[in-house]
Amino acid sequence: MAYLLSNSIRVLNSAELYKASKPSKFANENRGLKSTTSPRGRGPVHKTQKLNLEVSPHRAVSAVRLMRIEFGGAFADLLNENGKGSGDNEMGYVERTLGFRTRALDDRDLRLVLLFIPFSYFVTDIVGGTIRWRRYLDHLILALCHGENTFRSIEPLLLQILRIGFYEIVQLEMPPYAVVDENVRLAKVALRPGAGNMVNGVLRKLVLLKENNSLPLPTLEGNDRAQARALATLYSHPVENNSLPLPTLEGNDRAQARALATLYSHPVVFNAYVRANSGKGFTRADLVMRLQMLKVPHDISPYLNDFVRIKTGMQIMMQAGLLKEGLCSVQDESAGLIVSVVDPQPGESIIDCCAAPGGKTLFMASRLSGRGVVSAIDINKGRMRILKEAAKLQQVDDVITTIHADLRIYADDNHVKSDKVLLDAPCSGLGVLSKRADLRWNRRWEDMEQLKNLQDELLDAASMLVKLGGVLVYSTCSIDPEENEERVAAFLLRHPEFCIDPVDKYVPTDFVTEHGFYSSNPVKHSIDGAFAARFVRSL
Ligand SMILES: C[S@@+](CC[C@H](N)C(=O)[O-])C[C@H]1O[C@@H](n2cnc3c(N)ncnc32)[C@H](O)[C@@H]1O
User: Fold this and answer.
1) Residue 158 Cα distances to 10, 35, 138, 242, angstroms
2) Which of 23, 50, 252, 511 is the most exposed place for a label (fewest CB within 10 A)?
3) ipTM surpassing 0.95, yes or no?
4) Is residue 467 marked as binding?
5) Distance CA 506, CA 440 (A)
6) Is the separation of the CB atoms in 78 and 86 below 8 Å?
7) Atom of ligand 1 at shortest distance to CA of 357?
8) For ligand 1, what atom is nearest to the CA of residue 408?
9) Where does S-adenosyl-L-methionine bind (predicted)?
10) Inter-residue contact 338 to 475 (CB < 8 Å)
11) Are 184 and 199 in contact (CB under 8 A)?
């Protein structure tokens, strides 16, 4: 899971940016920015407070975020990790990297994937998409730059601007000449006129090739290795060591093969899944009526009573204020089905052990119909803040208690026993590869051992909070057996006081494994991959 990976957010100053690449023929001109030596002696920092209203703020912010992610180890969804704090600093990062500020972006522009999956062209779309398609985009840029040497000499910021332009034209199919103009302006102002000319030339070439349907794409020819590389480019997937390797063609193992199959089938996000907030008295029938009035095409979820599927028109829904008013929220059905496995009933006491940012807490709370309590525990303060805000917005805060703590310490110190306990454990996120753009490039297989140990420790801690006859649910958003079935088997060996309660009473049979667990798979079910096991305490 994200939090286990490096989370250091540092922006390279301009000197470092230039150092990161060889001198470029595009880098020869003076950027014309005033700079002085940093008090920390780390090279020049820009003194300017220049506000530039001509440059597209979305693209400027996106370019800077891409720099932070690629060179500073920040995440594509970095605001989710840190709550609003990162957003407040956004313009500081922009100014330090580009030398000027842009129009400030509001919350709707900036806030992010987990609670509001954006289906419009916001910063997160551009950043997420550009990262997701990086290998594919770089292949095209290289082809249009005439050779590896030229490509390698492109300075990092210029490369990000090109990637943004390529992504917008090739994947988002935005009006090409507007894209060209905006990215040329950004390159000119942030770098220098020559950089703008270069962006102009390359993007225009791309537009022509796309219009003629003759993009220079790799073909599936040659030996296994060559074909694997071509596939990796077409699906924008890493082949290097330390990343998710390509399966099957080079004989890697089952979990990796499944992960990539997922990716191949769904390189782009499928539907938006929206949950009507029945806790606020807003039923799915109410939601459907509003969607009909807004002319937003939708389908009813076949699996969950409160859920609706939306293919297009998410932006219309957002503009109508349905999300802002807390009437509904974006939530994948795989997460909703985990709540079905918990099966919250009015009057129950439930502990959500790893609760933030709160998707499942909020759904469970809405199921209590105002009677009972969900105690939401999480170690991450920023994410807890998001949970609290959402609980208020959705008017379910009367049945939610938030506890900022390390579950392991909390369980040792507090001898509370609840009817039901959910442990939605930190995991690799292999079930959500199609949404988590950065994961495929950042995941390190060495982290897995550490992650599995944490999952075991958290399961032990969560089990201490379950009363006799009570229920424990262990869930992940991974499709990797090492994090799922193997963790369950190890837990049962350590805890004979628990036995498996098959989930067939709670979710459609299509999701029930032969051992009685819940398992969703993006390829099979067109929702995120997830897993849940339900145990009952018998001793
Ligand atoms: C998969 S996410 C939970 C998602 C959440 N259940 C939801 O539906 O929105 C895992 C969470 O575990 C939390 N976490 C990790 N280690 C923890 C610990 N030792 N104690 C409590 N929470 C922890 C992380 O902060 C993260 O928010």
Assistant:
1) 19, 20, 12, 27
2) 23
3) yes
4) no
5) 32
6) yes
7) 9
8) 19
9) 354-360, 378, 406, 424
10) yes
11) yes
Residue 264, domain member (yes or no): no
State the alpha helices, DSSP H only, in 279-406.
284-294, 314-319, 333-342, 359-367, 381-393
Rg (CA), the chain: 24
Please tell me the predicted confidence (pLDDT) of residue 4.
Answer: 31
- Evaluate: CB of 532 within 6 angstroms of ligand 1: no
Give yes or no for a contact between 203 and 165, defined as CB atoms under 8 angstroms apart: yes
358 has binding-site annotation: yes
Active site residue 145: no
DSSP labels, 380-402: -HHHHHHHHHHHHHTT-GGGEEE
- H or E element that contains 73: none
- List the structure tokens of 291: 């969607």
Residue 470 Cα to ligand 1 midpoint, Å, equals 22
Cα of 37 from ligand 1 centre, angstroms: 41
Q: Which residue among 294, 313, 330 closes a domain? A: 330
In a domain, 261, yes or no: no
Model confidence pLDDT, tens digit, residues 22-72: 333 333 333 333 333 333 333 344 445 688 888 888 899 899 989 988 887
Residue 11 domain-assigned?
A: yes
Is 423 in the same domain as 313?
no
Minimum mean pLDDT range among 5-19, 31-45, 359-373: 5-19
Sequence-ordered list of residues with C-beta below 8 angstroms from that of 285, at least 6 positions apart, any chain:
none
Interatomic CA distance for residues 326 and 255, integer angstroms: 37
pLDDT in tens, 138-154: 999 999 987 889 999 99
Range of the domain at 152: 2-211
Rounded Cα–Cα distance for residues 188 and 63 (Å): 14
460 assigned binding-site residue: no
Distance CA 7, CA 12 (A): 15
